[in-house]
Write a structure and sequence with these properties.
- The chain is mainly alpha-helical and about 350 residues long.
- Helix 1 runs parallel beside helix 3, helix 7 runs antiparallel to helix 8 and helix 7 packs parallel to helix 9.
- The termini are far apart.
- The chain folds into three domains: about 90 residues, no CATH class; about 160 residues, Alpha Horseshoe (Serine Threonine Protein Phosphatase 5, Tetratricopeptide repeat); about 55 residues.
């Protein structure tokens, strides 16, 4: 009735408002009116697309489907309903759906590798740690490494999302490290990215500091998981990892020093490593000195071949050679016993040196 009597269909976006209120009976009049008034088609289409963006953001599969039936364009970018001045709300329905956690809505909008910039959608999903959407987009062929330096902006977004993961603590003012189970969704997103070849290369110290703050605010196990992912999938250079692990970070993950050492990451300084190695060698030497008589070992190795002698010491010839090397016991050179057997002259054997 209103349309037949010349109602204003453009001011204040009446169709978009009707759709947002889930007035399903407005759909058919809208389609018919748009078809009958091609001069208003663009403005009417924008109302439809605006409502589509709204329901994509809400994750309402039913109304997304209805608006797609009415001709909604999931790729048109614009403001969301009620947000005319928020820069973050200027997006397409595909971008809105990517940033939510309902994969079926994103699938209904049918992202197409030939039409859509999937990396942009991937970044939208990463900002909200939407792991199912991220895996879906990666399987569609989204390139995770879209930054100018060849690394992944999505990883950077996940790092920032890590700081916002513990909403309970943020809302209540609770001061605590973000528990591992709270950060697990973001870790799953990073895992999906690294499995698809994403690289982490901070552009500058600011990005590196952002990563440190995010990890320092979470349980140390989260840092362990992150490091294991980037090392296993070779997502960054060794220099980048060592730059990340400044003294405060090393202190933060000190409890996981042994697991990190098993994956090739030693948290100790070079001085500490040398001291430990020196202590280890001194301990081994002391044990061997108590077990073996150097003079007797020296006489034995020059009395018969190592392979024969080793069985008397219950060692392999290689093991006995290592004992001699540690105790600084000189051994005959290769071919010595062959020269003895053929009656050839051999040089004077070296003296047993002091251990000092």
């Amino acid at each position: 009735m209103f349309l037949d009597n010349g109602a204003d269909v453009l001011s204040d976006d009446p169709f978009a408002v009707a759709f947002s209120e889930r007035i399903r009976t407005a759909l058919r009049p809208f389609v018919d009116y748009k078809h009958a008034h091609p001069d208003m088609a663009d403005q009417l289409q924008e109302q439809l697309d605006r409502a589509l963006r709204y329901f994509a953001h809400k994750g309402d599969l039913k109304w997304v489907s209805l608006l797609m039936w009415a001709g909604g364009n999931p790729r048109s970018r614009g403001w969301n309903l009620n947000y005319d001045d928020d820069r973050d709300c200027y997006a397409s329905a595909l971008e809105e759906a990517s940033s939510q956690e309902k994969l079926e809505v994103l699938k209904r909008l049918k992202p197409d590798p030939c039409q859509d910039h999937l990396s942009t959608l991937l970044n939208c999903a990463a900002q909200r740690s939407s792991k199912d959407n991220m895996r879906y987009l990666l399987e569609l062929g989204a390139n995770p490494n879209d930054k100018a330096n060849g690394s992944s902006a999505a990883v950077d977004h996940c790092i920032k999302a890590l700081r916002l993961a513990d909403m309970e603590a943020m809302l209540t003012g609770l001061k605590r490290l973000t528990p591992t189970y709270v950060a697990s969704v973001t870790l799953e997103c990073i895992r999906a990215l690294t499995q698809h070849g994403a690289l982490w290369r901070p552009d500058d110290n600011t990005e590196m500091n952002t990563m440190r703050r995010a990890l320092l605010e979470t349980d140390p196990e989260v840092t362990l998981e992150f490091l294991m992912l980037v090392i296993r999938h070779k997502c960054c250079s060794t220099d980048t990892i060592h730059a990340l692990l400044n003294p405060r970070m090393k202190e933060h993950v000190a409890v996981w020093a042994k697991p990190l050492l098993r994956i090739g990451l030693d948290l100790r300084s070079k001085t500490e490593i040398k001291e430990v190695e020196s202590t280890r060698k001194a301990s081994i030497l002391a044990a061997l000195m108590r077990r073996y008589d150097r003079q007797k070992l020296y006489d034995d190795v020059w009395a018969e071949p190592m392979r024969t002698l080793a069985t008397k010491y219950n060692l392999s010839d290689v093991g006995l050679a290592k004992v001699c090397k540690t105790l600084k016991v000189p051994r005959p050179s290769r071919g010595y016993w062959r020269q003895i057997a053929t009656g050839k002259r051999v040089g004077r054997r070296p003296l047993l040196p002091n251990m000092a």
